[in-house]
């Protein structure tokens, strides 16, 4: 299959390229193409004529999206809309990646694909608008919701923790917000499996298990790094942020075919090994 990948320099984009074995991949970064530019998108899709457009590009600054909703909607709604339209025009399918932040967190139990979204933030609303545009404009779509994504080269919470552990004997971490930590490498492999199925629709692809708080994630990560840095649980009120976030956004899947990622703890263990290889072993 020929795949046109957008967002190639992001966490997921990098891991799709690293995991791909069997497809012809044309990988475009933000510098190569702004997905909010309709004519640019039509030009790229028309020139490469892919079988599938894989959108890993997004405006991911959840807090900045509160102050600049237009930027969030350009990246997360107009961008995927342009891609879905251009893909449909040349007979290509589309895989679009979305987020657990389309949910409000009030369910108190893991969210599946048929649960009702209710975003709390500008970022969440822009991502939901992107999902709806893709559904409306290209019937041959996969919509993949994921959560709490990390990989060694990206900017993410576990990597921030690693650098905090360099400087501090203890770190304070929020314990009353729960989600599904997801290794970008595991997500990339699951997506590459999904696109072989031809079973279009919505999928929740995130680290398996009952979910974790940021505190659980930090505790697991430091254990894997063999660090004795103390992790102190604190309420989210201790770290007020501009954007409201769901307190509980654990994802599960009831979709068929069931595509499951490994348990979230396995992703953290692999990440700890990768981070040690990249930046050194703090336990030594
Ligand atoms: N990271 C998470 O915790 C998380 C959680 C839930 C869902 N997701 C979703 O998972 C997907 C992949 O996320 P990720 O963590 O890989 O994101 P990422 O590391 O932030 O990468 C996103 C990439 O998209 C690019 N981009 C932004 N706006 C663009 C535009 N208008 N045109 C073209 N490229 C653009 C960015 O380039 P610049 O940096 O140059 O702007 C960046 O390289 C996204 O759909 C995201 O919403 C992520």
Task: Summarize the topology.
Blueprint: E1 2-6, H1 11-19, E2 24-28, H2 38-48, E3 52-55, H3 64-67, H4 69-89, E4 93-99, H5 122-137, E5 141-146, E6 149-150, H6 157-167, E7 170-174, E8 178-179, E9 182-183, H7 184-194, E10 201-204, E11 212-213, H8 214-224, E12 230-234, H9 264-279
Parallel strand pairs: 1-2, 1-3, 3-4, 4-5, 5-10, 6-9, 7-12
Antiparallel strand pairs: 8-11
The chain binds NADP nicotinamide-adenine-dinucleotide phosphate (NAP).
NADP nicotinamide-adenine-dinucleotide phosphate binds next to helix 1, helix 4 and strand 4.
CATH superfamily of the domain at 2-154 and 182-207 and 251-262: NAD(P)-binding Rossmann-like Domain
Remind me, CATH topology of the domain at 2-154 and 182-207 and 251-262?
Rossmann fold
Assembly annotation: single chain
- Give the terminus-to-terminus CA distance: 46 Å
Supply the CATH class of the domain at 2-154 and 182-207 and 251-262: Alpha Beta
Give the overall form. Answer: globular
Low-confidence sequence ranges: none
Describe the sheet with the most strands.
6 strands, parallel
Bound molecules: NADP nicotinamide-adenine-dinucleotide phosphate
Helix share bin: 25-40%
CATH architecture of the domain at 2-154 and 182-207 and 251-262: 3-Layer(aba) Sandwich
Proportion of residues in extended strands: 15-25%
**DSSP E strands, number:** 12
Average pLDDT works out at: 97
Helical segment tally?
9
Secondary-structure element pattern, one letter each: EHEHEHHEHEEHEEEHEEHEH
């Amino acid at each position: 299959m020929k795949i046109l990948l957008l967002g190639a320099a992001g966490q997921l984009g990098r891991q799709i390229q690293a995991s791909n074995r069997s497809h012809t991949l044309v990988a475009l970064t933000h510098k190569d193409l702004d997905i909010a530019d309709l004519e640019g998108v039509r030009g790229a899709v028309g020139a490469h004529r892919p079988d599938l457009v894989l959108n890993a590009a997004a405006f991911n600054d959840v807090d900045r999206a509160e102050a600049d909703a237009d930027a969030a909607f350009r990246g997360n709604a107009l961008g995927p809309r342009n891609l879905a339209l251009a893909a449909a025009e040349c007979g290509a399918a589309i895989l679009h990646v979305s987020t657990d932040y389309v949910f409000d967190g009030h369910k108190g139990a893991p969210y599946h694909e048929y649960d009702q979204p209710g975003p709390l933030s500008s970022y969440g609303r822009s991502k939901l608008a992107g999902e709806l545009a893709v559904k409306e404009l290209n019937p041959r779509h996969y919509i993949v919701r994921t959560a709490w994504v990390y990989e060694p080269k990206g900017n993410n919470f576990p990597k921030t923790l690693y650098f905090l552990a360099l400087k501090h004997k203890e770190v304070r971490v929020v314990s009353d917000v729960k989600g599904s930590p997801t290794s970008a490498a595991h997500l990339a492999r699951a997506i590459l499996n999904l696109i072989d199925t031809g079973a279009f629709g919505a999928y929740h692809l995130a680290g398996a298990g009952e979910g974790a708080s940021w505190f659980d994630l930090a505790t697991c990560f430091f254990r894997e790094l063999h660090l004795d840095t103390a992790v102190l649980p604190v309420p989210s009120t201790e770290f007020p942020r501009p954007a409201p976030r769901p307190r509980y956004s654990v994802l599960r899947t009831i979709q068929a075919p069931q595509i499951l990622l490994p348990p979230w703890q396995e992703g953290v263990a692999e990440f700890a090994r990768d981070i040690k290889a990249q930046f050194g072993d703090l336990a030594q």
